[in-house]
Write a structure and sequence with these properties.
With about 425 residues, the protein is of the alpha/beta class. It contains 18 helices and 14 strands.
Length: about 425
């Protein structure tokens, strides 16, 4: 199959690369000439485990190409995937579809034979119908169908998620388009991956509903953690107790400082705005958004309390800046709320993250970035763990204690055992567990 992917951001680059791994001929298109030049030189603009090697392999074999010529890429393609950004629109939280609709116009002008135009970007209900209208207006005679094919990729595990997904959702009821999409995903049929065909609207809503449900699950366990602290329960026992119920499941029941990243915050906002517009407001989703934002800001207060009520002139060591491990993504990270609040309260911040410091430096001013975990700890009055990178899970606690001015750790990801920390002489504050 010949596939064009429009957009080389996270979704477009991962999807295009994985399609080429299936053996399809793929060209990924972007208007950013510098980015395309870097990709053609073997430079990957994002950090995603396994992606660089897969890009290099399939570029060398000729299955994967990068370019800026939309017309050349779309002409003769069996499917064109729109994978451009849909950021939250300033002021109202709705998804900004400017890039999606601009891509649709360009695609329309370049279509030659029968083509399935697929929205891979996360888009609100009704977007596929509008893409179809736009293309039809530009090229009334064009032979095409529009389908929706939402992505369900976790940053840090995107390759595995694409190559071994729980399911593939395709929004189209047109048999001709269904056959093209089934052929594209045929390699996954060998591992019995469910391929679910729905209407455009159902597919578009499934993506938002899935993310909103997971965001709700995270928010629920975070609120339960707060209750556990009040009544002397352990949130990990509670999470395990309910997670063993197959109707609930154990995933996304890990307490922390709130969710961030490129998906959950933006998608919950967009879904809520859609629900309000249609007269069926999702009050649960609205509450989840409010609780999560408040939680991120409340984490700074938790640190200040642990430090005796003040962090003025204290050195605070921060481990972890990205919204989750195994990514360099800083979007909506809890660190962007916690660190400025601590700095505003008078703290001197030193921070380290294995992959996120270049991005963090663009967003956080007035803090010192260090080149290792241990360098961050020198002379610190407190250590705050914000992101649960693996390398933070097995720190040499004797060395940590020797480096710090005071043996105080505020663990916002619960990666250490309170009993072990007490034995090693630390004052240890975590989430939802007895002191």
């Amino acid at each position: 199959m010949h596939i064009a992917v429009i957009g080389t951001g996270y979704v477009g680059l991962v999807s295009g690369t994985c399609f080429s791994e299936f053996g399809h001929d793929v060209i990924c298109i972007d208007t950013d000439e510098t980015k395309i030049a870097r990709l053609n030189a073997g430079e990957i603009p994002i950090f995603e485990p396994g992606l660089s090697a897969m890009v290099e392999k399939n570029s060398r074999s000729g299955y994967l190409k990068f370019g800026t010529d939309m017309k050349r890429a779309v002409a003769g393609a069996d499917a064109v995937f729109i994978a451009v950004g849909t950021p939250s629109r300033r002021g109202d939280g709705k998804a900004d579809l400017t890039y999606v609709y601009a891509a649709a116009k360009e695609i329309a002008a370049a279509l030659t034979g029968y083509t399935v135009v697929v929205t891979k970007s996360t888009v609100p209900v009704g977007t596929g119908r509008e893409v179809e209208r736009i293309i039809r207006a530009v090229r009334p005679e064009a032979d095409f169908d529009v389908a929706s094919n939402p992505e369900f990729l976790r940053e840090g595990a995107a390759i595995e998620d694409f190559m071994r997904p729980d399911r593939v959702i395709v929004g189209t009821k047109v048999e001709r388009a269904q056959k093209v999409m089934a052929d594209i995903y045929r390699p996954l049929s060998l591992i019995h991956t469910p391929l679910l065909f729905t209407s455009l609207e159902s597919s578009e809503l499934t993506k938002y509903a899935g993310n909103a449900f997971l965001a709700t699950k995270i928010t629920f366990i975070n609120e339960m953690a707060d209750l556990c602290e009040k009544v002397g329960a352990d949130v990990h026992d509670v999470a395990r107790g309910i997670g063993l119920d197959r109707r609930i499941g154990a995933k996304f029941l890990h307490p922390g400082p709130g969710f961030g990243g490129s998906c959950f915050p933006k998608d919950t906002r967009a879904l809520y705005e859609t629900s309000v517009e249609t007269g069926a407001p999702l009050r649960i989703v609205d509450t989840v958004i409010d609780i999560n934002e408040a939680r991120k800001h409340n984490m700074a207060a938790r640190v200040i309390t642990a430090c005796g009520g003040s962090v003025a002139d204290k050195k605070i060591a921060i481990l972890g800046l990205t919204f989750k491990p195994n990514t360099d993504d800083m979007r909506e990270s809890p660190s962007l709320a916690i660190i400025p609040a601590l700095a505003h309260a008078g703290a001197h911040i030193r921070a380290y993250d294995p992959e996120g410091m270049a991005e963090a430096a663009k967003l956080l001013g007035g803090i010192e970035f260090c080149d290792s975990s241990y360098a961050t700890l020198e002379g610190a009055d407190a250590l705050v763990i914000i992101t649960e990178w693996n390398e933070f899970r097995a720190l040499d606690l004797k060395r940590v204690k020797a480096l710090m001015r005071a043996p105080l750790i505020v663990d916002l990801r619960n990666i250490y055992d309170p009993h072990d920390m007490a034995i090693n002489g630390f004052i240890y504050s975590s989430i939802g567990r007895p002191v």
